[in-house]
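Tokens for chain A. Residues wanted.
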């Protein structure tokens, strides 16, 4: 299936250029190490702000690879072939987004328990952090794909891409951090997880079609 081939191709190219995989991890580690230096090593303060800090870092780390999501395919002419191929363009875009999520978000999710322990998160907050990351990071990748499609023909369109997608990330950030605050207070945060789930379903349903339309507009 072509979608599987797209995922396999992107993962293979990423492994050949390992800096693309390591970059979000290094960015995360640097940011996590800077916050204690800036705010002090007071344990209670770090534990209180750690979930929100990690979510902001995850949001920015996911943003790092978005500019190149379709760029190489545009430069080698693959995107034009996608438009002509007898395959649903939204399905191919969903495959690209899945590969981007595997490369940018999944490593951060796997690192979250270690970073959470280092920053003094307790077990309920750490559990809530992992769940919100699993539900929220796909939304970041899917929404980001729309902006990447709109700016694919722009040289150095990273700034424009950020201006387009960062405001759309705000609901995910609000619901996720509120859920973590509820978890830290020992309160039920199921409602916020349901809202994140609804955003994930909505993004998975609509974002590939919106990105496909954006690609057609950009390549006209």
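Reply:
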């Amino acid at each position: 299936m072509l979608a599987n081939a797209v995922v396999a191709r992107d993962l293979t190219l990423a492994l050949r250029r390992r800096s693309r995989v390591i970059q979000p991890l290094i960015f995360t580690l640097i940011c996590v190490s800077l916050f204690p230096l800036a705010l002090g090593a007071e344990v209670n303060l770090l534990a209180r702000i750690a979930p929100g800090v990690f979510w902001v870092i995850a949001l920015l780390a996911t943003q790092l690879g978005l500019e190149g999501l379709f760029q190489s395919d545009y430069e080698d002419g693959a995107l034009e072939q996608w438009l002509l191929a007898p395959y649903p363009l939204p399905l191919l875009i969903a495959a690209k987004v899945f590969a981007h999520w595997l490369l940018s978000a999944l490593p951060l999710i796997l690192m979250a328990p270690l970073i959470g322990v280092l920053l003094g998160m307790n077990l309920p907050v750490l559990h809530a952090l992992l769940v919100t990351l699993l539900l929220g990071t796909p939304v970041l990748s899917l929404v980001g794909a729309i902006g990447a499609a709109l700016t694919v023909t722009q040289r150095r369109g990273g700034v424009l891409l950020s201006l387009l997608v960062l405001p759309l990330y705000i609901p995910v950030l609000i619901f996720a951090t509120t859920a973590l605050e509820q978890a830290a207070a020992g309160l039920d945060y199921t409602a916020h997880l349901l809202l994140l789930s609804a955003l994930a379903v909505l993004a998975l349903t609509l974002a590939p079609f919106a990105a496909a339309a954006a690609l057609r507009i950009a390549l006209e």
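The chain has a mean pLDDT of 83. Residues 108 and 188 are 25 Å apart (CA to CA).
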